[in-house]
């Protein structure tokens, strides 16, 4: 699956993936208009939504209503460098969620493919090629 990146005015950088277009922009203080999430925001979103699909599939397979389950992703940054140093994913289960599945739903969310990739990252090579 290839991703094609193209540019618009200002700080807008978009990606085409198959029939989908993902729009990005920078915050106003970063020279953008804040008209879309920034690229790094999508990276963070991918982690939360990836865990979410694992939780949803787990619940769907067991006939558990997932409509009231929420995942809150919180970020820990180094106060000096502002570098991201940790990510916490809280799976918020509604009253009445079956006790026998509490640990299992946590394990399901923990299986997220994005999280697994971060633990064993691929090599990334940036090249300049002529068209």
What order do the SSEs take from the amino end to the carboxyl end, as H and E?
EEEHEEHH
Structural class: alpha+beta
Sequence stretches where pLDDT stays below 50 over 5 or more residues:
none
Overall geometric form: globular
Number of domains as seen in the coordinates: 2
Radius of gyration: 18 Å
Which CATH class of the largest domain? Alpha Beta
Work out the strand percent: 15-25%
Q: Which architecture of the largest domain would the CATH scheme give at its second level?
A: 2-Layer Sandwich
Task: Describe the model.
The protein folds into two domains: 1-36; 38-119, GMP Synthetase, Chain A, domain 3 (2-Layer Sandwich). Helix content is 30%, strand content 24%. It has three helices and five strands, in the order βββαββαα. It has helices at residues 39-61, 102-110, 113-119; strands spanning 4-7, 13-17, 20-24, 70-77, 84-92. Strands 1-2-3 form a three-stranded antiparallel beta sheet, with no helix packed on it. α1 (39-61) runs antiparallel to α2 (102-110). The longest helix has 23 residues, at 39-61. The protein is globular.
